[in-house]
Design goal:
By secondary structure, the chain is α+β, with helices and mostly antiparallel strands. The protein has one domain: BirA Bifunctional Protein, domain 2, CATH 3.30.930.10. Helices cover about 25% and strands about 30% of the residues. The strands form two sheets. Strands 1, 2, 3, 7, 8, 9, 10, 11 and 12 form a nine-stranded mixed beta sheet that branches. Strands 5-4-6 form a three-stranded mixed beta sheet, with no helix packed on it. Strand 10 and strand 11 form a beta hairpin.
Length: about 240
């Protein structure tokens, strides 16, 4: 199986209704790697190495948590019209542009945003792309609830929304049931950078900082996302 999902992917749900997935019983645990601020290309290299290890059974299911320097990534459904800014403006603001093999259109990554790359084997008990995307949404919804923020899916779209706007984007790639790419949660993100692109369907974006009116330590969000991911996917965490 090979596929990608993200952006305007239709998950077939009713808006404002969250599902509670039944956790699967999995072999082994989940390794959590906190990489800190890492350039996109370097993080992609780590993803691919991890993907190979997971597929060959030489490494455990892994959740990579990372921040990126300013970068716009273009998914399979993106074209040049997805970026408003000129090349000169992008260079002036220090923003790289990278084409990627995930689903979806354009998104922005930058400091203060928590990016998660789950590299896990969905076979044999979770061979369902729609379910996987819903489980990622549920993970983030539960993590947001730990900070007193209500998140929800939105009919016909991926990601997690709030009453203030979209707070998390999701775009995934799955090959032979091993996942790469993942989600981006705006924590203390400078939202002005989203003005350089056209987010899917022109969705308004927000951040945890904007909703709560205070900066939130990224390590605290990492803790909750890792715990909730393990909970939703029925795994035990390994690593710091």
């Amino acid at each position: 199986m090979r596929g990608a999902a993200g952006g305007c992917y239709n998950g077939g749900r009713v808006a404002n209704i969250t599902t509670t997935p039944e956790p699967a019983i999995r072999r082994g645990g989940l390794r959590v790697r906190r990489l800190g601020l890492v350039p996109y290309d370097e993080a992609y290299r780590i993803q691919k190495e991890t993907e190979t290890a997971v597929r060959e059974g030489t490494g455990p299911d892994t959740l990579l948590l990372v921040e990126h320097p300013h970068v716009v990534t273009l998914g399979r459904r993106a074209d040049s019209s997805a970026v408003f800014a000129t090349r000169a403006l992008l260079e002036a603001r220090g923003v790289a542009v990278v084409e990627v093999d995930r689903g979806g259109k354009a998104t922005y990554h930058g400091a203060g945003q928590l990016v998660g790359y789950p590299v896990i084997n969905l076979s044999p008990d979770r061979e369902d792309v729609h379910r996987y995307v819903r489980d990622l949404e549920e993970t983030l919804i539960r993590a947001l609830a730990d900070f007193g923020v209500e998140g929800f899916p939105f009919e016909g779209l991926t990601g997690v929304h709030t009453a203030r706007g979209k707070v998390a984007a999701i775009g995934v790639h799955i090959a032979r049931w091993v996942t790469t790419h993942g989600f981006a949660l705006n924590v203390n993100t400078d939202l002005s950078y989203f003005n350089l692109i056209v987010p899917c369907e022109g969705e308004h974006v927000t951040s945890l900082e904007q909703i709560l009116g205070r900066e939130v330590p990224l390590t605290e969000v990492e803790d909750r996302v890792a715990a909730r991911f393990a909970e939703v996917f029925g795994m035990t965490t390994e690593g710091p």
